[in-house]
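Service request form, structural biology core

Requester: graduate student, group of Dr. S.
Request type: structure prediction, single chain
Budget code: on file
Notes: please return the result as structure tokens.

Sequence provided:
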Amino acid sequence: MIRVLVVDDSATARESIVAILNRSPAIEVVGAANDGVEGVELAARLRPDVITMDILMPRMDGHEATRQIMETTPTPIIVVTSVTRQEMIHRGLDILLAGALEIVQKPSSLTNQGFETISQELIAKVKAVSRVAVQKPGS
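Core staff response, request fulfilled:
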């Protein structure tokens, strides 16, 4: 069973991501955080196998939360974001440099086919990164 922590400030997005991940019998969502501060705390306490991380959040954004998690409790992180493709290129590269492994478009009010495609991609990426051994930067 792959244990996942979902970090997103939008209750709707958190619920969608949790519902998508719960469709897979191989995945268990063990926690959900409202922002980066809570995400860092829950990552240390719950020790999930994978974390999904939003980028734009109050108190602490996904970039800083990813950096802190990789410093304290290195965990495979997938960025799940709704930022535009142009912003994702800029912000996405920063967050990948901080330690995130993948970027997935956030589920939204897309067509059913688009939503299903994103759902399948998210589940596949969670399964894939759960097998990656991550270490503290510089280790």
